[in-house]
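Worked example

This section walks through a single chain of length 157. The input is the sequence exactly as stored; nothing has been trimmed or padded.
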Amino acid sequence: MTPSARPHPLRSPETSRRVLLTTGSSDAHTWNLVHLQLFLEEHGHSVLNLGPCVPDQLLVDTARMTTPDLVVVSSVNGHGHQDGLRAARALRSDRETRAIPMVIGGLLGISPQGAEERTAELLEAGYDAVYADGTAPTALLHHLSELRGSCTGRAAA
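Given that input, the structure is written out below as tokens.
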């Protein structure tokens, strides 16, 4: 991509957010993570991509070390609901990570039946937002723009 064809970041570097990006422990897909990482970086955000099949404890430990502005869990394998509940419980039960905002999106179940119940469970577990499969990635940009505070003084993600 030539410099003139690159999208201009929607946020200035001073107000960019630090995002910790992950999948659930059973999800081996990477293209969703690469897509989201590039998309967020093109819009001025700093992204630490943990890659596929992330154990819950690794997610908690990394969130402790980096204190991101937002944890994003992306699912492609259809088990996002189950993996997401475990990840949320792990993050919310840790004193140092319980207040970090987090969202989940993608293919959260293997069937459209029960989608409302899955969403309600994920919100109850501590997610700030649940994005259904097919939601435009601009919804994530909007969520990042609505976060309060700044990442000043936080460890680099």
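What to look for: Helices lie at 31-42, 56-66, 80-93, 115-125, 138-146.
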